[in-house]
Design a protein that fits this description.
Distance between the termini: 46 Å
Oligomer: single chain
Shape: elongated
Strand order of the largest sheet: 4-3-2-1-5
Order of helices and strands: HHEHEEEHHHEHHEEEE
Number of helices: 8
Radius of gyration: 31 Å
Structural class: alpha+beta
Number of strands: 9
Largest sheet: 5 strands, antiparallel
Length: 305
């Protein structure tokens, strides 16, 4: 007995495009989300690297205000605070990912040279700027927190940089998930790494600077240093983290949901039903073209046509 060896008829390209429309929308949405992640991570990376830029100095993790470093409980505290500036202290210090900035009043006058694996050491900075022979004693709770700041800063720096490096190829490769659900598996791993590194870096930065701020505020009786978190920096890094997490969830869902181009071509899944009825009601596109379904007879004045 002869067997039928003919292959199934091919589906037109336009039908495949329409059938995979839902998957295409989510694939390009995830690509856009990782571009958002990349943009905001770049803003985190370049925050505070140039004192002459009109915007970059306002992007920082934490700002230490030393304007009134001597508390009011000290006699003649106003005079002593004015003397502190003449000894070399600046009014404030801002911490970025690569360096720190300093200035007087509300103006940033200097930003240090960017350094890889940078961590903010206020004791070293203050002692290096004071005049020869001058010194300042910080409370032990601040100095004890510096060990945590050093370790956490190194991890934060490495994770933010890794997340930024992964975000670009992830955004470019995300549309490949349209063609096959198998492509979603490696993309899910890549997107997970991007979301993981970005989110962990944001968590470390948030926890570290909250602890550092708390340590400074608890020493208000000894030294009157005001600590303020940088709203812009925290918004940027958490927007990047949120966009990366949403992008990863999309690729994770595409491993089992939404028909891919390969699914439609092999007949495993049909995809969007509208793709097979492009000519209106009562017409369905088959594998080789359009087949018109028999239409119900219309009745006119009690007679059928």
């Amino acid at each position: 007995m002869a067997t039928d060896t003919t292959s199934p008829p091919a589906i037109s390209h336009s039908t495949i495009v329409q059938a995979t429309r839902t998957r295409r929308i989510f694939a390009f949405l995830s690509s856009f989300l990782f571009l958002v992640t990349l943009v905001f991570l770049i803003l985190v990376e370049i925050g505070g690297v140039n004192s002459k830029h009109p915007v970059l100095p306002s992007i920082y993790f934490i700002k230490l205000d030393l304007t009134n470093i001597i508390p009011r409980s000290v006699p003649n505290f106003r005079l002593v605070n004015s003397i502190a500036r003449t000894l070399g202290l600046h009014d404030f210090y801002q911490v970025g990912l690569w360096n720190f900035c300093e200035g007087y009043g509300s103006d940033v006058t200097y930003c240090s040279e960017p350094q890889k694996m940078y961590w903010f050491n206020p004791i070293e900075i203050l002692l290096s700027e004071l005049l020869a022979g001058a010194t300042i004693a910080l409370p032990t709770n601040i100095t004890d927190a510096l060990a945590l700041v050093r370790i956490a800063s190194h991890w934060m720096f490495a994770l933010f940089l890794t997340g930024a490096c992964l975000a670009l190829p992830t955004a470019l490769l995300a549309p490949l998930s349209i063609y096959s659900r198998w492509a979603s598996l490696p993309l899910t791993i890549l997107t997970f790494l991007t979301a993981f590194t970005t989110t962990v870096a944001a968590v470390i930065a948030t926890a570290m600077f909250l602890i550092f701020k708390s340590a400074i505020q608890s020493a208000a009786e000894s030294v009157n240093i005001q600590a303020q978190l940088g709203i812009k920096m925290f918004v940027f890094m958490w927007v990047a983290s949120g966009a990366a997490i949403l992008g990863w969830l999309i690729h994770f869902a595409q491993c089992c949901c939404c028909a891919s181009a390969r699914d439609v071509r092999t007949g495993r899944r049909k995809g969007r039903g509208k793709a097979y009825r492009p000519f209106g009601r009562g017409v369905e596109v088959g594998a080789t073209g359009a087949e018109e379904k028999p239409r119900a007879r219309r009745r006119w004045m009690g007679r059928s046509e």
